[in-house]
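Let's do one together. I've listed all components of the complex below, 879 residues spread over two lines.
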Amino acid sequence: MSLAATLLSGDKLQDVELTRRSSRVALLVGGLALAAAVLLGLNEGDHLRRFFHAYLVGYVFVLSIALGGLFFVIVQHLTNAHWSVTLRRLAEFTAISLPWVGALGLPLLYPLFTHHGVEEHGGLLWPWIHPHGEHAELIAGKRPWLNPTFFALRMLGYYAVWAALGIAFVRCSFQQDRTDDPAPTVRAKRWSAVGIIVFAITTTLAAFDLLMSLDPAWFSTIFGVYFFAGSVVAIFAWLILTALFMQRTGRMQRAVTVEHYHDLGKFLFAFVFFWGYIAFSQYMLMWYGDIPEETVWFAQRQTAAWMPVSWLLVAGHFVIPFAGLLSRHVKRRLTVLGFWAAWMLIMHWVDLYWLVVPGLDSEHLTFGLIEILTSAGLVGLFVAGLARIAGGRPLVPLNDPLLPECLEFQNI
Amino acid sequence: MAEVAARELPESIKPPDLIQGGEDFTSITNTVARVAEYKPPKGWYIAFGIAVSVLGVLLAMLGYLFWKGVGIWGNNQPVAWGWPIVNFVFWVGIGHAGTLISAVLFLFRQQWRTSINRFAEAMTIFAVMCAGLFPAIHVGRPWLAYWLFPIPNQMRMWPNFRSPLLWDVFAVSTYATVSLLFWYMGMVPDLATLRDRATKKLPRLLYGVFALGWTGSNRAWHRFERAYLLLAALATPLVLSVHSVVSFDFAVAQLPGWHTTIFPPYFVAGAIFSGFAMVITLMVPARQFFGLKNLVTMRHLENMCKVIMATGMMVGYAYGVEFFIAWYSGNKYEGFVFINRALGNYAWAYWTMVTCNVLLPQVFWFRKMRRNLVVMFVIAAFVNVGMWFERFVITVTSTSRDFLPSSWHYFTPTLFDAVILLGSFGLFFTFFLLFCRFLPTVAMAEVKTVLPEAHPGHHHQPAEVER
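Okay, and this is what the predicted structure of the assembly comes out as:
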């Protein structure tokens, strides 16, 4: 008999039917939304240039949640955390979805290798593929790193590493479900230190490649940390929302308590602050240094069209949620906490949108159905993958040696 | 429930018994209070004698400095910031472990902090004192150092609010104030314990004054714990802010090697790194001399070694990212600075830094090394050296070869640079040894809360988890 069967008797911790059904619904909705976005994109007559910018936003959005999940899982093992045991499986599902997320990235090979749109726009997505314009020579100098073949190989490498990490840690967790012997958990803990190092390096480089190289003349050493901060905000918001969803649909009733939400809320608050700190550091230093090769990137985001989005980030990604999540009361009032989690996920999306889309056109705010439908489609496909993974699997680690501690602790 | 209660966990994941040797409430008080109540071992007098002598040398040197001026240092164009600024950043960095342990680890419910937080907080305060000394003597006319503060005056002269050097004044003084308050507030119950145990008049009076009339009543404890939690939350941003502002001193400039966006989090990681190294440097001998081995166990030291390894690798990450972006940026000045760091005339300093900060802490991958007092003491010493060199590399390499090759100059420190750095250790250790002698070095009241006896279910079978 598993620990969970003893400690959480009567709790619904497994559900084949509903997850399968949600998988089908999500697949259908996601597929339709994406198809509609492609049609709208074709209608733009720009060789899908706008569509692929929108696609990158949605794609990095789901990727950041999955990577956040991987980070969460590794860190819980690394720090021997007990507060999070019953939540860990929800993060494990997102971590093990990384191969699927990788597959969702395949359409980006098209802008990487096609020659369509080179004459009119100088390329469809990453400008370094066909260096042009006033910085062409500078960008061409980066060819050893920024070239389509190496880029694709690097992406393959990142996904190989992430998938291996995700599968390795989650497999330990699934094995632990079936045995009383704590060996699998000990093994996960042993590998967590190496895992976090590999994670840090690959995530940083992926952030440079996917997002920073959208403006190949621009550079910022903190950029990897910036992307990481946003991803962690995303995973805590995601965990709050998925836990709420599971509980409101009658599952995990006893496994997750208000204490867990309180801790998730604290971490969400902490990383809202951390994101603000990192974003401020990057902005302030470039603003103060006032070197054109750096400030040009922010100048693109401070045009008449994009300034409101920049302010929206300052207010919506930092100031307002900071005030909103400060109180203990809020973190223990689940509907309100759920509101802030949803808010932060939306703001995280705005953050990525703000990173990607000004490169398309910094004079006009490009926002419409294409952006909405592409991201909705990718989230739908992501959720479909998650629901398939979760289908029939236990929703909490059934035999985790620290499960009793997880159910016992209180925020006093 | 029986099988749950009886489970045996492997040591690597089991919640540890933080206090060992069968210490209980009474014996903890005795162990800690004894240090302050009886004459210290002979070693303490020897150490104190040395520390005070070195402090004396510092004071003499400062006198000479004020008499002669800052020309006695190696600072000159183009390296206008020499050792004094290096020393300032070095000491401020060391002062970071205190708040991290007391505030951040408290919020993370890391109970092992209770055995070391008092110690680390004290160290923080003395390190910040040493840090504060250097900018004050670096201004050239130290009797006008108060001009750093925005004091209203009839000439309407204000400091430059747009200068990060002024932000430093606010950041460091805020940090010093809050650290002091946090340290003192946490000590109040323990001071009351010393007051109640004191047999002589003078100690009773002094401990009594500083114990603020603490009664130990339920209500007092309740308020104390709320206040402590709030102060911890308020102190947490300071862990980030102080060294971030210090990093701004460099990073707002347009100088390659200084101007890079990763500086704030990288400096913070480095500060925690060096702070923990200093805690180990002090703790390993102190627990031996003062008989605190049951309170500061191998487990505590091992955890600190892990923090050192983790933060050391964060620093290594920053070194790596800086190098990569220096190439990736395509900026030839940026590229030159980094090639020059690694292969130029300061390569010896750069590789000393990399070896001490990134390579040597890797021995902590082995559990045996994390539990070996000699190894951890030696590595911590190397980390202290490495972190000093990190600030040296940043400060000196970028300025000694700036944009104009005709002004390039190899920086050479003078004897006074070296003696004043050494003297600051005298200042640090004098206060530190006084702290060890007269104040409770371990937070007695807090340590007791992590004993199994303090746990609500201690005397009962674990109850069914009710929801």
